[in-house]
């Protein structure tokens, strides 16, 4: 698996895509767990929509965020908020994204190298056909931190799923009714 460095994403905010109706945040439909955390710096702070609070790990690398859905869910992007200026050696420098149905069959789909990130990091989640992936579980693993830091800070994580739009089915999309049996449905009374 080759690693990549995310493109310039400083102006990309997950709330913009949500407000436009293109995607919806599905993290609230999942059960979240962490490999470790300091008291008062857990899942609640990671999901509270505040850039002032954060999850702080407490233990050996890798640090894991596990996101488990009760049903197979389509995922198009993962947004991670990180700020090197505030967190310094606690800031992740290498992150692995893994997906699967449970802990025992996770496959690494992406490795992201970060260089002093400040803001939202966007990780597109796509298969080889460039389509969003359907999964039961996502694991975000912090492989290493800046300045060889031991514990890590993550300020926010958002999980996006594309909004499926229904095609407008009108009679104009179909050919003319040509038989007597079908012509009775040509107009609505």
Write a concise keyword list for the protein shown above.
four-stranded antiparallel beta sheet; 189 residues; mainly beta; 10% helix; six-stranded mixed beta sheet
What can you tell me about this protein's structure?
With 189 residues, this protein is mostly beta strands. 10% of the residues lie in helices and 41% in strands. The chain is built from 4 helices and 12 strands; from the N terminus they run E-H-E-E-H-E-E-E-H-E-E-E-E-E-E-H. The strands form 3 sheets. The chain has a 6-stranded mixed β-sheet, with no helix packed on it. The protein has a 4-stranded antiparallel β-sheet with strand order 2-12-6-9. Strands 4-11 form a two-stranded antiparallel sheet. It starts with a strand and ends in a 6-residue tail after the last helix.
Residue share in β-strands: 35-45%
The percentage helix is 10-25%
Question: Ranges with pLDDT <50 over ≥5 residues?
Answer: none
Which class of secondary structure composition applies to the elements? mainly beta
Main beta sheet strand tally, sense and closure: 6 strands, mixed
Spatial order of the strands forming the largest sheet? 1-8-7-10-5-3
- If helices are DSSP runs of H or I spanning 4 or more residues, what is the number of helices? 4
Rg calc: 21 Å
Report the principal-axis shape.
elongated
Mean pLDDT: 89
